[in-house]
Amino acid sequence: MRKTISALLSAAVVLTATLAGQAQNAVDQTSNSVDKATNTINKVGSLFKKKNRNKTDTTAARPAATPNSNSNAGTSITINSTYDFVPGNTVIFADAFDSTVQGNFPAKWLTDASGDVVTLQQYPGKWFSLTNKGTYIPKLKGGLPKDFTVEFDLIIANNNQSLTFVADFEDALNHNFDRYPSNPFVQFRIYERGMAYVDSKAKNLSTNVNSSAFNEGGKINHFAIRKQGERLLVYINQEKTFDINHAFENERTYSTFKFGGDFYAPAHFLLSNVKITAL
Predict the structure, then answer these.
(1) How far from the centroid of its chain's Cα atoms is residue 46's Cα?
(2) Are strands 256-262 and 195-200 parallel, antiparallel or unpaired?
(3) 115-119 vs 126-130, strand pairing mode
């Protein structure tokens, strides 16, 4: 009997120890799981803190953007240009019409029409008043040289309709008054509102621009034209209107200079201060 009780007590002790061990293991495993979870949470938290800290630091390090009140507004640019026209050293023709009696046709010119020298209340000096559709040629002994410059002042007075002013350089010495000659020519034309054209028959060239400097409202327009080799330069009131490096034939002499205009009353074309130089 005593042996039986002792055996039972021994079994109970073993069972209790076993259960206690298992319970302790369960507790230890749970603690380990909690510790692991805690470590994981801490690591994640640290990671988020680091990322947030880095993001905050990066944002703080960036310079503040300047607000643009109008993203479509362009910057105003000031352009500086130079009037680089240079006349020739040798004057071969000049006429300010000072020696012409008022009302007469100037003696230094040829025409297929008419015209007379007048004075103006608004401007000093004398002015050559052209007729509609007339062509005018300065008397140049031997014609224009190989390279040259031409300058003159032009007033478009009382214009209220369309107009055309033509300056023509032609390979001829026959005083041809044809507006569009059969001989090789280079022609500059300007219309109302500053629409300017250059045509070169020999070069098969035709080009146009719009001059913002041209004025047809009774003000003086100064024209300056330079021919050097094949190059043509045209300035209107110091604006470079054309700079064409292949307008003329280099081997040809454009010996005749002529001009004329198309306009309607009460308009007048008034010309003065004509000067032609050789380069």
Answers:
(1) 60
(2) unpaired
(3) antiparallel
CA distance 122 to 219: 9
Q: Map residue 53 onto helix, strand or coil.
A: helix
CB–CB of 110/139 below 8 Å? yes
Question: Residue 69, SS3?
Answer: coil
pTM recorded for the entire structure: 0.72
Residue 16: phi and psi, rounded to 5, are -65, -45
Burial (CB count <10 Å: 0-12, 13-18, 19+), residue 228: middle
Looking at the DSSP assignment, which residues form a beta bridge with residue 45? none
Residues in the chain: 279
Bridging pattern class, strands 220-228 and 205-210: unpaired
CA distance 215 to 229: 30
Instruction: Provide the CA 220 distance to its chain's centre, in angstroms.
Output: 26
The partner residues of 278 in beta bridges, in order of sequence, read: 90, 148
Task: Pull the structure tokens for residue 73.
Answer: 């507004």
Query: CA 120 → CA 95, 100, 134, 253, distances in Å?
Result: 17, 15, 21, 37
pLDDT tens digits along 52-99? 444 444 444 444 555 555 556 678 888 877 899 999 999 999 999 999
With 0-12 CB in 10 A as exposed, 13-18 as middle and 19+ as buried, what is 190?
A: buried
Could you tell me if 160 and 266 are in contact, meaning their C-beta atoms sit under 8 angstroms apart?
yes
State how far the Cα of 135 lies from the Cα of 141, in Å rounded to an integer. Answer: 19
